[in-house]
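Hi F.,

I've been meaning to write this up properly since the lab meeting, where we talked about keeping a consistent format for the predictions we share between groups. The idea is simple: the sequence comes first, exactly as it goes in, then the structure tokens exactly as they come out, then a line or two of notes. No screenshots and no reformatting. I'm using this chain as the first example so we have something concrete to point to.
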Amino acid sequence: MPSSSRLPSSQLRPWTADFLQQIDGFVSALFSSISGTAGGERRKKMNWVSRKVHLYNVTMGLYMLDWWERCLFNILILTLLWFICYNGSRFAADLYDGE
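Output, unedited:
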């Protein structure tokens, strides 16, 4: 037996060599995703609107919700924004008319 702890691939069983190649591919993919090389290509393909939607989902924590929960939350936010804008415009009109 050789003095090194690692055997040449010719002395390994075939399934062991395949397993080690799969592990090597997994580790290289993991480190490339951590370093940002794989994800960077995907981010470059996103247009401006997609980036803003993604930022909104991540900032508000919506990425972890189901589609219907996200829809309910968005309806709530849109209703709240409509209420603020509508009442703000009425208040501004009353303030402008002044007495």
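Notes:
The helical segments are 14-35, 37-45, 48-60, 67-97.
The chain has four helices and no strands.

If this format works for you, I'll send the rest the same way.

G.
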